[in-house]
Amino acid sequence: MEHRKGICIVAYKKEKNKILYLILKRKLRWIGYELCKGGKKPNETDLQAIKRELKEETKLKAIRIMKLNKRLEFAYPKKYIPIWNKKGFDANCYAIEVKGKIKLSKEHSSYKWLSYSEAKDVLTYNNTKRILENANKILNHKI
């Protein structure tokens, strides 16, 4: 059994020469803080999946998209394997500047725009903290 292919989005906006990161509070299947992410549909490109996931989960639009040199990989708990018929999740990661007004999907109960240090402290899993760290290093060299 293989991993479900997907995308992971480090969504950010610039405010007063600072970068703020979007952190979502998950409520579907588990509770905790995460980055925007989702599975790819058959024959869907990463770009198509990014636009769809942003719209589905937040209603935000991508302004600037940059691929990161990190991947989000994890195994599903046994009880979730039958949902996707996959043993885990494997995603390409992107830093994406976004615009628009947030409207959350049923997957999340709330959101926060946070500085890097605040976002890193609140994220639930270390693998997403490492992806955020990678994005932050790159973005701070490009500003």
Kindly describe this structure.
This protein is α+β, with helices and mostly antiparallel strands and 143 residues long. The protein has one domain: Nucleoside Triphosphate Pyrophosphohydrolase (Alpha-Beta Complex), CATH 3.90.79. The chain is built from four helices and seven strands. Strands 1, 2, 3, 4, 5, 6 and 7 form a seven-stranded mixed beta sheet that branches. It is globular and about 45 Å long. The model has no long low-confidence stretch (mean pLDDT 89).
The CATH class turns out to be Alpha Beta
- How much β-strand is present in the residues? 35-45%
Count of discrete domains: 1
Return the CATH architecture: Alpha-Beta Complex
Sum up the overall morphology in one term.
globular
| Number of strand segments | 7
CATH topology: Nucleoside Triphosphate Pyrophosphohydrolase
The class by helix and strand makeup works out as alpha+beta
Provide a brief overview of the structure.
This protein is of the alpha+beta class.
Task: Give descriptors for this structure.
143 residues; Nucleoside Triphosphate Pyrophosphohydrolase; 7-stranded mixed sheet; 4 helices; 7 strands; 28% helix
